[in-house]
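Notes from the 1:1 (GR / supervisor)

We went over the backlog. Supervisor wanted to see one worked example end to end before approving the batch request, so GR pasted a single chain during the call. The sequence is below; no edits were made to it. Supervisor asked that the structure be written out right there so they could see what the output format looks like.
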Amino acid sequence: MLAFLKFPPCSEPDEERAYRADPSQTAVLFYAQQHGLQFGKDIAYTYGPLGFLLMDYFYPWAAWLRLVVEVGLDFMVALGICLVAWRLHWGWRCLLLGGCAWSAANIFAGDIHPRCDLVINAGLLCWGLLGFVESGRRLAWVTAAFGALAVFCALAKVSYLFLAAGLVPLLGGDLWLRGRRRLALGLGAGCAGGFLLGWKLAGQSLAYLAPFLANAVAMVRAYNAALGFEPLLWARNLGWVLAPLFLALLWLRARSAFDGPAGRVWGRRGFLLAWLLLLTFAAWKHGFVRAYAGYLTLCFFYLALLAVALEVFAAGKPGRGRGDALLSGVCWFLPLAGAQALSFPAFPGSVAVAVRAAGANLPALLRPGEYLRRENAAFAENRRRAQLPRFRELIGSARVDVFGYRQAFAILNDLNYRPRPNFQSYGACNADMMRLNERFYLSRAAPEYVLFEFLLLDRKWPSLEDGYVLRQLLMNYEPVATEQNFILFRARAADAPRLTLLREGTARPGEAIDLSVGGGANLWLEIDLRPSWSGRVRQLLARPPPVRLAAWRELRRGLLLRKRAPASMLAAGFLASPLLQHNPDLLELYAAHAATRPRAYSVELLPGDERFWQVPFRFRIYRIENPLGRRTPNP
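Structure output shown during the call:
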């Protein structure tokens, strides 16, 4: 548990960390819990109503509850790992416990986010495996532990809600075939009832559960299509090496698992194989969709844990060959070697990290009050540095939203923060999420002020993130002040966008899309780049291939800008003219200075990636009839 434990630190008040999205995400989820915001109505995000209990940063609200949950969850997961290890031969036991302690400590020391995925994946795997192999009275306790963990993580994070919806019925099917029908029905009914009860106890209305699930589907699709980078070439190649090895390992372990009548045994093996494939695929997708070094490391940790934990089905089996054991050893070593190369300090320094982690966690565990005093002092310093006194005077008690991903500034300044449903701009990365936010801005709940900042995640095209809200700001808001890196916008109208189609057609990658049809007008461009069958397979297994968008001063001459542009965001559309990249560009637009207006755009793919897309693709050019960048005339 000391290796898994990570008391959340307060975000350090230095310039590099101040621009991260994670501290603000944490702040908003705590704010939502404090103010009774409804998930499915007020909030549409990748976390659920208990998500604030899993966040990576310290906030003083509900601090003691957070500590209890943190320690309880980590102890429960560590207990599951130890119970699996207890069933193994001593050599595999050492690999399992030693590998977990070493890698978990290094992952947390390396400030890799989100750490909750490592803990939850490990817990679901180990308690689920125990549910397949235990018997007698202990089976009921193991099943209850797995169900409780599944309910908690489903209420905390959207991806685990869908994962639990698949894992619970598969384990229940195995229990049914074993003759434990009451336990199987109890697992299903308990998880469903526990989720609904937890939803109500978290202050959520059941009336918004259906919209929450609908938004969750849209969010999962959006994140898969738009976020993250291509992994390092060697890490990607290692992933493709590991994929067939683990498929073979899962097949071998499931094929030889269990004893009894042939029909029932093959049914149980089918449930086990499906259960393992689902959980492993979820961990794989999470690592290779985001594809940062930290997320790949989390995936590699899970794979190493899986390779050794599956030995519970091989322990004591007669006639096991050396090749079988060698496969498990290779599947344990290669992921940990990849994790070491990606994220850990140089070996053997990473071993010392595990020892230091236990030494640092133990005092905080024994003296939690001291830990809370230290982090509260750090939080107070963060609050002091985040103050916006000029904005506070102008805003008063009016409603305010934040464009970008530093929502914590509104909360730390005690403003009347009223977030749009998908509150961080990078999260609105497909048309569904953008429309949801746009409807909020066209409703009576629209904010009277907006803290604006161009901050882009994953080096994307500037005007793609939350493009519909950006369009609303330029049409209906005006700048009134600047402070720190923010522009303060004030509402002056509430008009819906009026678009006139000027031209539609087709183009190929690298071919110029001529905007001259629009003259000097404000233009909106939609590019419908759809995946081919091979592209759909690639997106299912990992992530879409990278797409770049380029703006040109003339047709294919005079490059203005080239950035990443996910296909789902291109299809939603973006402001093509004028070209806005930074905060000063918006201020110049409102000052009636000459704006940069590209003559053409082009979609660019990496060599060999055309086969993943339907070519040619369609595009549509619209003129925005609403005036952009206008101020309220002086009386």
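Supervisor's comment: The chain is about 55% helix and 10% strand.
Batch request approved.
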